[in-house]
Design goal:
Length: 455
């Protein structure tokens, strides 16, 4: 298309067009349910390229998508016929070890960030898989193994370089453009393109952790619930009601069978992990366990092979403040119905340090919750789309009366354009006012979209 040729001439980076040899690689995103064909992919080389791309999309009235790590479940990081601003080349990570901070390109993955920080014995909370993008995960909140100890990923953002809808490059932090800095901590990609984050880092080297697989039983859920209430914040965890993958330390007779799987990440001392393992041992019948010392970078890769790009996904979530016996009954029935080994109902703890901030201190509102409950449908064949989507929705409906309102923006599908109103609750109005100031034309709308207030 000739209009895109004009952009190609302006960019320092590369513009990939349909028909180019690397077009399919450039447009690929995580969720194969959204096989989108952008008019062009701008592999930007720096903030100035982002400015040029934004202004080009605005002036040509083109739909715009922003791609960080490409893991958006609703496929927001690409767009049919429009311009995909692709940040993956902005992946430089500069660590200031003495200052315990890092400057991280807006297109870096957590694997790239974790490796660079780990070289200095440092880390910050990120997701539980290494291929997700720092950008999308952080802008929606960001929950990981270190969150009970150091908060959400967004809580550790000190500053950001942001390119706004009118092509301005600005730095925002607690004092400069503090309103949009607040909005970036959970408000998603609504306010512009972050070309660089500055993160606070914490001393984290080796952790003691790994998976424990249980035969499903109410005791596992009760034990997990009580552990989140009583164990110190050095206990990071993820509990999944899923099917057992074919792992060498679990007997073959269990492979593919329903299981409750706990991933433990302990940053405290050796005595502490002994106590944790003793406690866990009382939850139920263990069918396989592989817990030991490992670099923090490794625990964030445990799911990488199970969840590659190219599978089909439909995810939803709820927010849990407490888990009563009725909810435990529902979960025990659900575990038998999990359709594939990649699917499940997963608990991501967000108590501990995530509660150091209140619900309106950042755009991420769920500061009174214990865990985000993600319902993950992941499968291989298009013929199974309906059945798997239905499984996710049925699990969600069964849990709704137990957990009430609230969902995590980063796991939300795109079924409901009004979802952001309930996702953000009392923060929505403030987000909406900030949207009017920074993106009044709603150029950044491939996201859980915050709309400007009616004028
Ligand atoms: C396999 C898998 C594992 C996950 N694990 C976790 C987890 O452990 N914890 C957790 O909290 N979440 C997790 N998530 C959810 C994840 O946080 C979201 O999918 C998130 O959107 C991924 O970010 P991304 O940069 O990879 O995605 P993208 O698809 O690249 O980005 C998603 C959206 O974010 C915005 N965006 C991305 N980067 C930028 C930027 N630099 N500037 C402005 N806007 C930007 C854009 O609106 C974009 O459409 C997981 C998702 C998957 C698929």
């Amino acid at each position: 298309m000739s209009e895109f040729s004009a952009l190609r001439a302006q960019l320092q980076g590369e513009l990939v067009l349909p028909g180019d040899a690397d077009y399919d690689g450039a447009r690929e995103t995580f969720n194969a349910m959204h096989d989108l064909k952008p008019g062009a992919v701008a592999l930007v080389a720096g903030p100035e390229d982002v400015v040029r791309s934004i202004l080009f999309a605005r002036d040509h009235d083109l739909p715009l998508a922003v791609r960080g790590g490409g893991h958006s479940l609703p496929g927001f990081s690409s767009v049919d016929g429009g311009l995909q601003i692709d940040l993956r080349r902005l992946c430089r990570v500069e660590v200031d070890a003495a200052g315990r901070s890092a400057r991280v390109g807006g297109g870096a993955t957590w694997g790239q960030f974790n490796e660079a920080a780990h070289a200095h014995g440092l880390a910050t909370p990120g997701g539980v898989i290494s291929t997700t993008g720092v950008g999308g995960l952080t802008l929606g909140g960001g929950i990981g193994y270190l969150s009970r100890q150091f908060g959400l990923a967004c809580d550790n953002v000190v500053a950001a370089e942001l390119v706004t809808a009118d092509g301005t490059i600005l730095r925002c932090d607690e004092t400069e453009h503090a309103d949009v800095h607040w909005a970036l901590k959970g408000g998603g990609g609504n306010f512009g393109v972050v070309t660089e984050f500055e993160f606070r880092l914490h001393p984290v080297g080796e952790i003691l952790g790994g998976p424990t697989f249980f035969k499903p039983s109410p005791g596992v859920l009760e034990g997990f619930r009580d552990a989140l209430a009583t164990l110190p914040s050095e206990f990071g965890a993820l509990l999944g009601l899923t099917r057992t993958p074919a792992l060498p330390f679990v007997g073959e007779e269990h492979h593919g069978q329903p299981t409750m799987a706990l991933i433990t990440s302990w940053t405290g001392d050796d005595d502490g992990i002994s106590d944790v393992l003793e406690l866990i041992g009382g939850w139920g019948e263990i069918i396989g366990q592989h817990v030991g010392p490992m670099p923090y970078t490794v625990i964030n890769t445990l799911f990488d092979d199970l969840l590659p790009f190219g599978l089909r996904n439909y995810w939803k979530s709820l927010v849990s403040r407490s888990m009563d016996d009725q909810a435990i009954d529902v979960h025990c029935r659900q575990v038998d119905s999990v359709p594939t080994v990649e699917s499940g109902v997963f608990f991501h703890p967000i108590n501990g340090a995530c509660h150091d901030r209140g619900p309106t201190d950042t755009a991420f509102p769920h500061r009174d919750a214990t865990a985000v409950v993600g319902i993950y449908g992941t499968w291989h064949e298009a013929a199974d789309d309906d059945a798997n989507r239905q499984w996710v929705r049925a699990c969600y409906d069964d849990l709704r009366s137990h957990y009430g309102d609230g969902e995590y923006v980063n796991f939300a599908p795109d079924d409901d354009p009004d979802a952001p109103i309930s996702i953000y609750g009392e923060n929505y109005e403030r987000l909406s006012r900030i949207k009017r100031e920074y993106d009044p034309q709603n150029l950044f709308r491939r996201n859980q979209n915050v709309r400007c207030p009616p004028s």
